[in-house]
Amino acid sequence: MILPIFVYGTTVLRKKAVDITPDYPELKQLIQNMFDTMEKADGVGLAAPQVNHAIRLFVVNGAKFADDYVNEPELRNFRKVFINPKIVEFSGNDVSFSEGCLSIPGLYEDVIRKTEIEIEYLDENFVAQKEHLKGVCARIVMHEYDHLDGVLFVDRISPIKKRMIKGKLDAILNEKTHRNYKMRFASKKMSV
Q1: Which domains does the chain have, with CATH numbers?
Q2: Which of the residues 26, 72, 131, 144 is marked catalytic?
Q3: pLDDT over 70 at 191, yes or no
Q4: What's the sign of the alpha-carbon dihedral 115, 90, 128, 5?
Q5: pLDDT of residue 65
Q6: I need a labelling partner for 35 at 20 to 30 A (CA). Which of 5, 27, 52, 96 fits?
Q7: How does DSSP classify residue 75?
Q8: What is the pLDDT of residue 5?
Q9: How far apart are CA 91 and CA 100, in angstroms?
């Protein structure tokens, strides 16, 4: 099922998400719905808060970037579920990269992040995993991980840049944006 994506201004995006256990209600269905929603919206990642679940869960699929980043072949098969993730180390260089977000439709800005991370998480079967990720895979995970802490990519840009995009953010708050996916605005209205 395709779920509505909650956009900039909705309170769930600013909540700190909580860990879950294997008995979380209808978890397998939620995970499948998140993949379906992300793919319908042409995204590469989707965090549970973006679909109104303040839990520590996100899904990713980097295949969309595989042709653009041929030096990162791991993107082609980078389709994963991250439950209760914890980034234990950031490393590498600081690199600027243009990021967008399904919850901030139509807006892209350069965000500086480290190039590598070490992450521990549970997969969809609640099996503990530990991975070293780098490049675009690490970037996707860091972006989605931020959602679990109530952080949006626009929080990571300079105050000057943030002032420059204020009009675009206000347009989202005032529901003056449209995408090819269902959106839930702070006023509780839904756009299709």
Answers
A1: 5-191 (3.90.45.10)
A2: 144
A3: no
A4: negative
A5: 94
A6: 96
A7: G
A8: 98
A9: 23
